[in-house]
Write a structure and sequence with these properties.
Residues 1-7 and 250-254 have low confidence and may be disordered. The relative contact order is 0.18. This protein has helices at residues 2-6, 11-37, 39-63, 269-295; strands spanning 67-73, 77-80, 83-91, 99-105, 110-113, 116-120, 125-129, 131-134, 138-148, 158-160, 165-168, 171-181, 185-196, 199-203, 206-210, 216-219, 221-222, 228-235, 240-244, 257-266. A hairpin with a 4-residue loop joins β18 and β19. The chain contains 4 helices and 20 strands.
């Protein structure tokens, strides 16, 4: 939460947070004075305080959360936003709504995440339901994206040079250039233009390489209508990139790697607290009105 407050730099959300905090403090003072004179005098201002609390929660959780995508090979630990995740497999359910099992070692506590990822014959697509872990100051969402196979060989990948365009199925891929970020973890992003379904959209898959451990993490980018594109390999000598795209033949089995998105929602509990305070204020106002009418 402190990091979230310190990161409020956008002018509009910052102004909303300041206004909501000012309104909350003012209404709390007025509400306290009203209740000293009797509960009937304080309930009206209590609803205003609840609205301020709810607004703070909405802005904080929607504007200042963080999200990252990560691929989880079965049995191997990966880190995302400070949480250590290990994909342990998929639990088959009798109703067909299978769930992935992910062991999570969080700074707050250890827990087991069970997001749903299963095929729906009715919708003719994968149904996805995130796992939500609730804490006092924030919530963690672990959302399944797709099951992918083992890493493909470079012969199964789509190799592109800068400015080159190639077509796979009904989709054209153009490699624009690399974006590089050096450090302990080197990040290489491939900027692409993808022509699909009569329109051109950008794509930016990322390859992360930890220079200390030698481990790699591939972050795919998702295409309209389903499917994803990710970096298989990079050739620094020729400046080419190898991509894994829908429609490329693969010789490896499926279901060994789970792609997920980890998202934090700071101070989202303020939304529920504000809603409860507003509901309590409304109920108390109705009760006060009923008592006044009975006395009249």
């Amino acid at each position: 939460p402190l990091e979230m407050v310190g990161g409020v730099r956008d002018p509009i959300p910052a102004a909303v947070i300041f206004a909501a905090a000012f309104a909350l403090s003012a209404n709390l003072v007025v509400t306290a004075r009203g209740f000293r004179s009797g509960w009937k005098h304080g309930v009206a201002f209590l609803g205003h305080a609840g609205a301020s609390i709810l607004l703070l929660g909405v802005v904080a959780s929607s504007g200042y959360g963080t999200a990252v995508q990560v691929q989880l090979p079965r049995g191997q630990e990966r880190t995302a936003l400070g949480y250590r995740l290990t994909f342990e497999g998929v639990q088959a359910r009798s109703n067909g709504q299978d769930r992935a099992t992910i062991a999570v070692n969080a700074p707050e506590r250890r827990f087991e995440a069970s997001p749903a990822l299963y095929w729906s014959e009715f919708n003719k697509g994968y149904m996805k339901k995130p796992h939500i872990e609730r804490f006092l100051t924030h919530d963690i969402y672990i959302s399944p994206l797709e099951m992918v196979g083992d890493e493909k060989s470079q012969d199964d990948a789509l190799w592109l040079s800068k400015g080159e365009t190639r077509e796979v199925g009904q989709v054209k891929y153009t490699f624009v250039d690399f974006d590089r970020q050096m450090g302990e973890v080197v990040r290489v992003a491939a900027r692409l233009r993808v022509e699909i379904g009569g329109r051109t959209v950008p794509a930016r898959p990322v390859l992360e390489m930890n220079m200390n451990t030698g481990s790699t993490n591939r972050i795919p980018d998702y295409l309209p209508g389903g499917g994803s594109v990710q970096i298989s390999a990079v050739d620094p000598n020729t400046g080419r990139v190898a991509l894994e795209v829908p429609g490329m033949e693969a010789h490896s089995g499926m279901g060994d790697i789970l792609a997920v998105e980890v998202t934090t929602k700071p101070l989202i509990n303020l939304v529920w607290l504000g809603a409860i305070v507003m509901l309590a204020s409304a109920f108390a106002s109705v009760l006060r009105r009923a008592i006044d009418l009975r006395r009249a």
